[in-house]
Each structure stands twice: as C-alpha cells, then as structure tokens.
Specification:
The protein has 303 residues and is an alpha/beta fold. It has 9 helices and 11 strands. The strands form 2 sheets. Strands 1, 2, 3, 4, 5, 6, 8, 10 and 11 form a 9-stranded mixed sheet that branches. A two-stranded antiparallel ribbon has the order 7-9.
Length: 303
C-alpha cells in the first residue's frame, strides 16, 4: 500500500497489448464510481503495442511498468501500489463499466459474510454474458458440457439465474469487487497459476474461510472478451490450471482420474475441430512441452 489517503475503492487493471480497449475502460470509471472515493492503478505486463503510450498520456491513473510474470502477480502488484481501500475493483482492460455500477456492487459487498461481488455482464452486442460458474467436480471436467446439465457443466447458462441476487461458487474475473481486508487475509491471488483459474481459486478459498461470492443484477458492465487473444499456449495454460486447481483441492488420487478425463475431453474437442486442443493434449502427456511459466513440468500430473 502507498502513503496516499485511504479510498473507498482501489480499481486495479493489468494490461498486456491492450491498446484497443484500455481507453474505453478508463473513460468509464468516473461515472461508474458515483460518489465513492477511488484510485486507479494499471500494471502493464510488458506490452509491445501502443498500450503504454496511451497510459502515459493520461492523468487519471498510476501506471506501473512490469515484466510479464502473470495476471495474478500483476493484480497483486497493482494492489500493493494502491492506497488502502475498503474494496478492490478487479478489472480486465477490455471491460466497460455502467454508470453507477460500483456503488451498487459496494452495497452488496458490505453485507455480512461477503468477500466478492460479481455484476451482470453483457457481451459487446448487448446479449447476456454467462459469467457465473459452478465449482469444479469430476463430472464437470470439461468445464463446458454439450449436455447443458448442471451436474456436468460449470458454466451457468440459465438466464433466470441472472435475474436475482444470489450466492455463487465463483464468477469470471473480468469485473469483480473484492473486500480489501479479505483479499489481504487470503494472501491475494495465487501467482502460481500465472494465467487462468486464479479467480476460481480465490473465490473457493474465500468460501473455505466462510466468505461468499455474490452475484448482483443491480450492477452492469460490458466485457468484450479475448482482448489479448487466445492462442494454443493460453488454451493449454487454461486446461493445465484446471487440473492443478482440482489436484490442490481434492488430492492426488482423485486428480489422476480428473487428469485422464481431461485428456479424453481435449482429444474429443480436437476431433470436433478445436485445433488448439491438440497442442494441449501433447502438453498434458509430455510435461516438457508445457509452458515453462506455469512451473508444471516436473511430473505427468501437474502440481
């Protein structure tokens, strides 16, 4: 934390080649905050496009230049460079906040036992973005199931589930408001994930501690998604981190089964035309082919 006066909300953003989106996000923040006091810290994880030039031309945020040691590490760094705050507003650079959305989220966050608040998110075309998720289980190994049945899929598709405020197991981390003290108590984001699964892990650890993640339709935002693009490497990281998360929460024996089900799921996706799944299958079966940034090359079952 800095020596700056405390604020209600510390908005934190991690950018990586975000030149096409960061301006719209930053422009949306003042109206979104209402009467709340706030700060904005942007950590740039080594952009090679015009992101830093855009940020350097603005006076409404603090910019921290960093090497790319992961999204979670960048988020923790942004929090460390922020003033003391009652709540931390985690934002992807390709998000846009609705006017007055943060006070609505903040009102929910102040309810007893709440650690994380997720707003109603829409896609760029205005349609609902299904950001709510069920917890990982053996049956949900694929994350997104063609059956659409809750016992087999993490993603909550039912539009009715987005009409009322309720507790969820976790939500996509593009826009989240987190209690500042509870963020600190949980040690922030787990940096070992590098990219993907850090928000899942955080909400599940909060739940373990007795604190809820709550969805509210009273606050709105837009998320374009894919602002930095998905490659075969990032898809591999996403799948490997799902296995790592499951292992850390359930133990090695169950994770072995989960691992082989993951391999089968990715083979199926590859056969159905998902080209990025084939490099993922190779990385699952050959640890030395895994992205070194994950530190998961020492055993077949990723740690």
């Amino acid at each position: 934390m800095t020596d700056a006066p405390p604020v209600d909300i510390a908005a934190v953003v991690v950018t990586f080649n975000s030149e096409h989106h960061i301006t719209e996000l930053l422009d949306s923040i003042p109206a979104a905050m209402g009467q709340l006091t706030y700060s904005v810290v942007v950590v740039d994880n080594g952009s090679t496009d015009a992101t830093l030039a855009i940020l350097d031309g603005r006076a409404d945020c603090t910019v921290i230049r960093s090497h790319n040691d992961g999204y979670a590490a960048g988020m923790n760094r942004a929090v460390r460079h922020s003033p003391q705050a009652s709540a931390i507003l985690i934002l992807n650079p390709d998000a846009v906040l609705d006017p007055g959305s943060v006070p609505s989220m903040y009102a929910v966050l102040r309810k007893p036992g709440t650690a994380v608040v997720a707003p109603r998110v829409r896609e760029q075309d205005g349609s609902l973005s299904p950001t709510l998720r069920r917890g990982p289980t053996m049956g949900r190994v694929g994350g997104l199931s063609f059956t659409g049945r809750p016992m087999f899929t993490e993603r909550i598709e039912d539009p009715q589930q987005y009409e009322t405020e309720h507790e969820v197991e976790w939500a996509v981390g593009a826009i989240l408001l987190v209690d500042g003290a509870r963020y600190a108590a949980l040690g922030g984001m787990d940096e070992s994930y590098f990219l993907y699964s850090e928000e899942t892990d955080f909400s599940l650890r909060a739940k373990d501690a007795g604190w809820a993640t709550v969805y509210t339709p009273a606050a709105g935002a837009m998320h374009i998604g894919g602002g930095s693009g998905e490659s075969a490497t990032t898809h591999t990281m996403k799948i490997l981190n799902r296995v790592r998360l499951y292992r850390r929460r359930t133990g090695t024996v169950r994770a072995i089964v989960y691992f082989w089900l993951t391999v089968a799921t990715e083979v199926r996706r590859g056969l159905l035309g998902h080209a990025k799944s084939w490099p993922t299958v190779r990385a699952l079966l050959h640890p030395k082919e895994r992205p070194p940034l994950l530190g998961a090359r020492d055993s077949l079952l990723p740690r």
